[in-house]
Every structure is written in C-alpha cells, then in structure tokens.
# Entry
Amino acid sequence: MNKPLILVVEDDPSVRNLVTTTLKTNDYRFLVAANGEGAILEASSHNPDIVLLDLGLPDMDGVQVIRNIRSWSNMPIIVISARSEDSDKIEALDAGADDYLTKPFSVEELLARLRVTQRRLAIMPAKLMSDKSIFENGKLRVDYAGGCAYLDGQELHLTPIEYKLLCLMSRNVGKVLTHTYITQNIWGRSWDNDVASLRVFMATLRKKLEADPDSPQYIQTHIGVGYRMIKVE
Ligand code: CA
# Structure
C-alpha cells in the first residue's frame, strides 16, 4: 500500500514542524501550505488522502477552505483549532469537516485521529460508497433494506427514531456528527429542545446497543459537539 499523503495546512511554523516531523517518523508522506489559498491549490493539484487544516489562517477562515474543497471533493478533512470555543469546531464540522483536534494536542492524539480517518477511508469504497444494504460493525448489523438491526444475531427492538438515529450514525461511521446535523436529519430542524430530545433518544438507543452504556463501544459522545460511531476492530 502506498504511504498516505497528508496535506498539512498551518501558518504557525512550530505547530507545522511538530506535525510534519510526526508524519515523517510514522511513514506518512506530506505536503504543506501556510494559508488558505495555498491549501486549496495543493488540495486540488495533489488530491491528498487526508487534509489537516488549521482554522485560523492569515488569508481566510479555515471554514471557507472546507466549503471550497467540499464543493468538488469528499477528501477527509481534520480540523485543527487553537480556539477552545466549540462554535468554531461545530461550524467546521457542519461545513463538511470529518473530525477535529484542539490545540495543544499530543503526537498520540494526532496519530489516533489519522488512524480513525484511515479506517474510514478503508471501508468507504466497499461499504459506504456503494449502495450496499447491509452495514456491519463488530457485533452490530444494520439491514437498511429490511429496516432492522441486530446485535450479536439478536434483533434490536428499536423505536422508529432510534432506528433512524442508528442508520444515520452507521452511514457516517468514523465521522463526528454535530447535534445540528443529526437533528436536521432526524426532525428536519434544529431547535434547542430537539437537541435535548436527541440526548434522550441517544440514551435509550445506547441502552439497547451498548453492553455498558457508561463506557460505550459503538457511539462516542463529543461533549458540546455531537456524536460519532466508532469503527469497532
Ligand atoms: Ca493559525
């Protein structure tokens, strides 16, 4: 397999060096860009496997870079945010980013996010890009055509909303979905009380899906941001 090509977009030389050194010593190839214009140019001319994108760039907002790339490509984008405000990450995720890292981050965190995204890439052609009607992840099996789900061979008795939620999470396995994205897909709108309802439905879904709802194996909570279905090994 070819070494994955990562586009690193970061204007801060110290962070850029940390990232590129980590990539070099972990068998990745990389390209760098120090601003948004450079990022769009490198992304379109080299078609990288993953983009690591700093949100605070000198020439434009990172969210604009995401919108530009998303207008022509689904390449995975992991956002790097120095700002601790959740609203920036959420805006980036809603614009089409796949995942996020908050500065300061460790080398281990960076490598873990890259691995999650690579696993997503590995299953994309086979399971996500095709119109395959069965989804399998660990002991979970969702039969989209049949409208039912199984855990360890046992049918899960889900309410229509729980089932819809499970389908949405499984079709986006590996990706962080924001509260807004989920509620818009489930209810067609996103009001404050929809996010509260989402928490309730997520809790009841987890009771059925997770062996231990307090340490979930399938659906991860991103506090203040949303949820992600994990690809189980
Ligand atoms: Ca920056």
Observations:
- Helices lie at 13-25, 36-46, 62-70, 86-94, 107-128, 160-171, 179-187, 192-209.
- The first strand starts at residue 5 and ends at 9.
- The chain has a mean pLDDT of 90.
